[in-house]
Task: inverse folding
């Protein structure tokens, strides 16, 4: 039995604790904002926060999340930094197909929580694991700078 | 000319069950994806008006607009939103003529109904060829204008005032003299009782408030930033099972036998079924479970034996070697003028070049997937649906239904780049075949087919591999005098419902579109070989231009160098009779500061390259600036892009599509290739098929040529230009010509 907190709600699961967190979120809880893109931690579409740190849910076994706090895209707007990031994303119309953007927003929020004034190089370093095949990177960078400015 | 593809081969029994190719009449198909647009509009107001509302809508004047009692406006989008901004664009056109409040406009995917929602440039209901704005702009404006006229008529009747005195702004109708006003919602029911206007006057562009506005918020920004947007991957239906499949390891292999004991022993695995293949797709084994992870575990536990006696076992090197041998032979003549051979023999300055292009995967972020629910005489499909007519007909044939018994819900597509419009409906029919196999076992659960990234990358449908061999020459006047080009590439259209219309005299236009064009060469010869490789191929963002544009624009650059001319000035001189090419070329060159020096750090070499490509009736020029470091590492620093797409419906979407198109093309130029060894695709995931990452992203500036011409497309035209622009910049920096893509480590020392 694995117990963990997801977006402030306690959950328990008595299935395979080796199952990646991603599939627990999506298929067991119906939190489908977190996306499957590669299953190998190569694309970042599944990024969520585990005790505030960005992790790839596709390679994180449920067992590794036991007793910890998970935050997903569905709840990131409750965080002031997450909200600022979402608003900047909308103001810049970052999205195209949108499939990777939950992960992008989760990575960007984690970056801004750790570094309130990131440089382009900081952004590249923090966001390089998040692939966008529509290639919205210029707007991602601009939106992160805008969110940073709005947070100060 | 185009042999039947190996993977079409089936036993007679199998063939009897297969869907035939969709029958499309000549009248229906006005063009395929690649060629010129023939603007034939099928029913200007499109689709029969509904008059009084159905369901919850208070007012449904036509197939594209619904107005609810609360005043909200719903636009039914006949084109899938896969990132290219179609939902925003279609809604802009409707809202403009309706004078709607943009914040109260929402967009919903239209159902599959070819008669109402045909793409008039494709002859089928579908999205592709960068045709959404081009085919729908007038239709959508008329749909909005008709709804507006009916609202105005309703207000005039209710207020007993002349319709001509009523103004509409931001979703509110006003009669100034009497001081009366009402929102759309208040008048919706009454508007539904008005007759549908037969004559409509559309706005003069000077009156536009939304079309062309620098920054109109996208309709899909909110739900794509809070996790609530619904993609196929996110569909959950009662009792639904997830299917994860074992595909054959090689194209053309068929299922011999399988042992599901270990898979079935996994807790949560509900069933394991074999499913049939068909035209353009292969049968396999599906493991079904409520949970995707469990289904994956089950799939991995399967033991499957394949009959590979008819499978494709070539490596990509062997295929390219075969292409090279073919290029030694004359091909089918696609275009000819003068006597290229004689002119080449006489010319003093000749160049010869051979180009190689790899297979490319679309690799959309959302791997292919599809949800199917079967009833006794019904099939429901949920999909990021890009090809309604084809998928509907294919599913109906597979199930023995009529097309109208197949309902399709068009969801957001998590990217596509062409992949979700498969002419054989490969992944859609795979999902249907699995649901059918389940049903035959007495299970009626809805099925969600989920491909893993590995499945997506290895299941085929690639931009075809290509080899081009070119000989060209400069005459005594310093201008190109001869150009001989042989293209070897597999036909995308052969064996599809579009073959009859795309392949003329043995030449698939999508294989050679854009070759040599728009340059007029007195002595030219363009020949094509279309070998069958057994590897499934498909259109990939900008189709033939992905390779023809690269060759044309790097050869022209070489000819400029051979003539001792500046590559920009050389092109400009050749394009005098092509004002729209010239327009974007000049704009890009001016904004980029063409000719100004580029500062290079010690040990680094920098260069600037230019290219111009017309595709899908849009004109794009790009200037790329690159740095080649001492060790040969390449960085694309800056791209200046000029685009002429006629009237820019949403300039910010146009910019976004240029940025994205450049980035998508750049990934392919720098890194991407699908290769085969003994018929097995070697790339499985993003560590081997490298996408562009944020750290590699150049600065991009997009400049839009102001225009009142009808809108053309922007989804694809940004993509084919970046390759030659970068290659020409590399030449400027290093003197090296890149003739094999991707560049990968060719510059490394």
Result:
């Amino acid at each position: 039995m694995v117990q963990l907190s997801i977006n402030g709600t306690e959950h328990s699961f008595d299935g395979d604790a080796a199952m990646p967190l991603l599939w627990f979120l999506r298929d067991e809880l119906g939190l489908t904002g977190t996306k499957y893109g590669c299953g190998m931690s190569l694309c970042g579409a599944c990024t969520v926060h585990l005790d505030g740190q960005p992790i790839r849910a596709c390679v994180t076994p449920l067992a590794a999340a036991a007793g910890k706090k998970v935050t997903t895209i569905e709840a990131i707007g409750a965080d002031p930094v997450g909200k600022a990031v979402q608003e900047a994303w909308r103001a810049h119309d970052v999205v195209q197909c949108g499939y990777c953007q939950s992960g992008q927003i989760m990575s960007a929020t984690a970056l801004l929580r750790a570094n309130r004034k990131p440089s382009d190089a900081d952004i590249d370093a923090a966001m390089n694991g998040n692939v966008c095949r529509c290639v919205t990177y210029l707007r991602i960078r601009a939106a992160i700078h805008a969110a940073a400015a709005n947070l100060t | 000319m185009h042999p039947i593809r190996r993977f079409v081969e089936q036993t007679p029994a199998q063939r009897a069950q297969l869907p035939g190719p969709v029958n499309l009449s000549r009248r229906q198909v006005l063009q395929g994806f690649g060629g010129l647009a023939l603007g034939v509009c099928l029913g200007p107001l499109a689709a029969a008006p509904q008059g009084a509302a159905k369901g919850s809508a208070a007012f449904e004047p036509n197939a594209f607009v619904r107005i609810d009692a609360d005043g909200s406006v719903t636009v039914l989008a006949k084109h899938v939103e896969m990132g290219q901004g179609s939902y925003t664009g279609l809604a802009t056109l409707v809202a403009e003529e309706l004078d709607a409040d943009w914040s109260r406009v929402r967009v919903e995917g239209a159902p599959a109904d070819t008669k109402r929602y045909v793409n008039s440039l494709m002859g089928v209901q579908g999205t592709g060829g960068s045709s959404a704005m081009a085919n729908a702009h007038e239709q959508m404006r008329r749909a909005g204008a008709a709804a507006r006229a009916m609202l105005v008529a309703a207000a005039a009747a209710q207020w007993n005032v002349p319709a001509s005195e009523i103004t509409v702004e931001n979703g509110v109708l006003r009669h100034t003299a009497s001081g009366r006003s009402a929102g759309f919602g208040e008048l919706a029911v009454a508007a539904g009782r008005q007759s549908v206007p037969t004559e409509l006057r559309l706005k003069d562009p000077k009156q536009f408030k939304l079309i062309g506005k620098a920054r109109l918020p996208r309709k899909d920004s909110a739900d794509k930033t809070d996790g609530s947007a619904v993609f196929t991957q996110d569909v959950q239906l009662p009792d639904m099972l997830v299917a994860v499949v074992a595909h054959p390891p090689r194209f053309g292999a068929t299922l011999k036998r399988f042992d599901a004991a270990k898979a079935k022993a996994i807790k949560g695995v509900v069933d394991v079924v074999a499913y049939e293949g068909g035209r353009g797709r292969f049968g396999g084994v599906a493991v079904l479970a409520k949970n995707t992870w469990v289904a994956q575990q089950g799939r991995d536990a399967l033991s499957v034996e394949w009959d590979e006696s008819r499978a494709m076992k070539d490596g990509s090197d062997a295929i390219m070697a075969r292409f090279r041998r073919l290029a030694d032979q004359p091909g089918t003549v696609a275009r000819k003028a003068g006597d290229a051979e004689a002119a080449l023999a006489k010319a003093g300055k000749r160049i010869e070049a051979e180009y190689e292009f790899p297979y490319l995967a679309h690799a959309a972020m959302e791997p292919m997937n599809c949800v199917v629910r079967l009833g006794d005489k019904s099939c429901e499909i949920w999909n990021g649906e890009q090809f309604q007519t084809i998928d509907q007909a294919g599913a109906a044939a597979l199930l023995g239904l009529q097309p109208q018994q197949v309902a399709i819900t068009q969801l957001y597509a998590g990217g596509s780049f062409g992949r979700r419009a498969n002419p054989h409906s490969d992944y859609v029919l795979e999902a249907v075949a699995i649901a059918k196999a389940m049903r035959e076992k007495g299970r009626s659960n809805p099925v969600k087919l989920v491909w893993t990234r590995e499945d997506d990358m290895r299941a085929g449908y690639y931009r075809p591999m290509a080899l081009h061999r070119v000989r060209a020459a400069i005459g005594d006047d310093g201008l190109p005098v001869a150009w001989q080009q042989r293209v070897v590439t597999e036909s995308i259209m052969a064996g599809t419902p579009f073959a009859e219309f795309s392949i003329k005299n043995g030449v698939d236009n999508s294989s050679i579109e854009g070759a040599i064009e728009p340059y007029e060469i007195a002595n030219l010869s363009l020949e094509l070989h279309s070998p069958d490789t057994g590897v499934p191929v498909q259109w990939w963002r900008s189709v033939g231009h992905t390779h023809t544009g690269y060759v044309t624009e790097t050869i022209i650059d070489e000819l400029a160098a051979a003539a001792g001319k500046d590559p920009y000035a050389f092109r400009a001189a050749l394009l005098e009779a092509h004002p729209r090419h010239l327009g974007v070329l000049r704009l890009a060159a001016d904004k980029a500061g063409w000719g100004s020096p580029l500062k290079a750090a010690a040990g680094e070499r920098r260069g600037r390259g230019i290219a111009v490509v017309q595709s899908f009736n849009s004109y794009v020029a790009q200037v790329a600036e690159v740095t080649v470091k001492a060790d040969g590492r390449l960085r694309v620093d800056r791209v200046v892009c000029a685009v002429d797409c006629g009237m820019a419906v949403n300039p910010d979407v146009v910019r976004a599509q240029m940025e994205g198109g450049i980035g998508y093309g750049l990934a392919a130029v720098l890194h991407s290739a699908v290769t085969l060894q003994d018929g097995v695709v070697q790339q499985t995931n993003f560590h081997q098929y490298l996408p562009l990452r944020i750290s590699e992203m150049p600065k991009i500036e997009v400049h839009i040529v102001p225009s009142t011409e009808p809108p053309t497309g922007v989804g694809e035209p940004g993509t084919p230009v970046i390759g030659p622009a970068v290659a020409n910049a590399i030449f400027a920096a290093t003197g090296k010509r890149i003739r094999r893509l991707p560049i990968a480590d060719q510059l490394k020392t």
